[in-house]
Design a protein that fits this description.
Number of helices: 16
Order of helices and strands: EHEHEHHHEHEHHEHEEHEHEHEHEEHHH
Largest sheet: 7 strands, parallel
Distance between the termini: 28 Å
Number of strands: 13
Radius of gyration: 21 Å
Length: 394
Amino acid sequence: MTAEPRPLALFLAAETPYPLAGGGALRSASLLNYLARTRDVDMIVFRQPGSPDPASQTPPGLTRRIVSIDLPETGRGTAARALRNAVRLARETPPLVDRFAGFGRQIAEAIAGRRYEIGVVEHFWCAPYWEQVSRLCGRTALDLHNIESVLHGRCAQVERGATAFAHRVFRQAALELERLWLPRYSCVLTASEHDAGLARAIAPGAQVAVYPNAIPLAPPPPRMDEEAIVFSGNMEYHPNIAAVRFFRAEVWPRLRERWPALIWRLVGKNPDAVKPYTSGDPRIQVAGPVDDAVRELARARAAVVPVLAGSGTRFKILEAWAAGIPVVSTSVGAEGLPARDGENILLADTGPAFAETVSRLLASPPLRVRLGVAGRRLLEREFTWETAWTKLNL
C-alpha cells in the first residue's frame, strides 16, 4: 500500500538552526523539528560569510530540501560598523532588518512552482518576505524571538549618547514595521504571554499565540561545584554587553573582595565584544563558545543573569535550570518565565542587592541545592521541546 504523501512546509530561517548553539538556533531548531514530525520541510536559510554549508550541519532526514542564501561580507571593525549604522539611522531602518533585506528574488526563485500547507518565517528581521512566502503557502506564521521595538527601547534606556539615540530611532522604526507586518501573517508566535500582550497592543489585528522557548531534554550533567559564577550568551548581543558592563562595574568588585577565590566565568560566542570589561583581571575567565553549554554551566556554583534590557525569554536561565544550578537574575532577565523569587530563582535589580544576593547563595550550600533542584524540575515540566510542542497548533 502506497503511503499518503505528507503535507509540505516551508521554513525560512535567518540563521542556521544547527549546531544547537545559542538561543536563536535553539528556538528555530525546535520549530523545525516540530514541523518535520508531520510534514516534509523545505528550508531556506541565510548563511554568514565563511560559515559552513547549513546542509552539512542539519541532521539527515529533518528536511527535504535546503537552499542557502549567502549574506554579503561586511567589515567587523569599529569604523565599518559605525558607517553602516549611520546609514541605517539616515534610512531609519533597524540594523538586522537591513542586514537581511533585498533577497526577495532569490526566495521567490527557490520556491517557484511549489505549494506549501504552511510557511514559517523565523525572526522579525525576515518578516517582509511574507510578500514572497504568502503567494505559495496556504498559511503563514511569523516567529518572534523578541519584540524588536521593545528590545531597542530598553537598550536606549540603559545606553547613553549616540548609542541611546540610535536605539530610540530604531525602536520607532521597528514599531512601525511591526504594525505593518504582524497583521499580515496567519499566526504570530511569541516566547511568552508577556510578549504576546505587547504584540497584541502593537498590532491589534494580529493573531498571536505563545510558543515558549525550550531546550531538548537531556539527563542532568555532573555537578562540579567549582567556586565560580557563570554568565552565558552571545557576547555580541547588545543586552549581554550591557549586562557584562553592569556586572563588572556594580557587582563584581563587591563579590571579588568578599570571596577571594571566586571566579567569574563567561561562556559564549563573540567574547571580544566584552573584552573592555573582562580584560585585566585574572579572576575573570572567558571560555568563549563551547560544545555543550549546559555541561559547562554545571561546573559553576551559580549562574548570574544581570540583564537590564531585552525581550523574549532568556535561554541562559533555561540552560542553568537544565544544569541544576541556582540562578540570580534581575527582574528583566527573568521576565516571561514562571520565575518565583526564593522558590526557583533569586532576584535582585541593583548592584549592591545583586552582590548581596549572590553572596547569600554562595554562603549557603543547602539553598543552592534547593534552588537548583527546583529549577531542574521546572525545566523538565514546562520547557522541553516535547512540552512546548503541545502548545502549538500549526
